[in-house]
Write a structure and sequence with these properties.
Layout lengths: L6 E5 L6 E5 L4 E6 L12 H43 L13
Antiparallel strand pairs: 1-2, 2-3
Amino acid sequence: MAKLPTEYEVTCPCCHATLVVDAGLRRVVRHVAPERADKPSLDEAHRILADEKARRESLFEASVQSERTRGDALSKRFEEALKQARDEPITKPSRDFDLD
């Protein structure tokens, strides 16, 4: 792209990106991101995808297992609450409304 006489390049001190600023417009007209050092190569793509697939599968299995045991835990808590309710004596609650 041809550079106009009113455009100049500036390097960002934070991210080291190249910014092209137009002095006439007083705006950034183009931004070029710097090359990342940790950018994976194309040769490692298969390994990265396999690792991510294994991670997703393990998270899914953990989710399925927690859902399977969730019903058991809820029914156990319900049985305990029901037993506690049966053991408590039945009393009539006293409210200010009932005293009139």
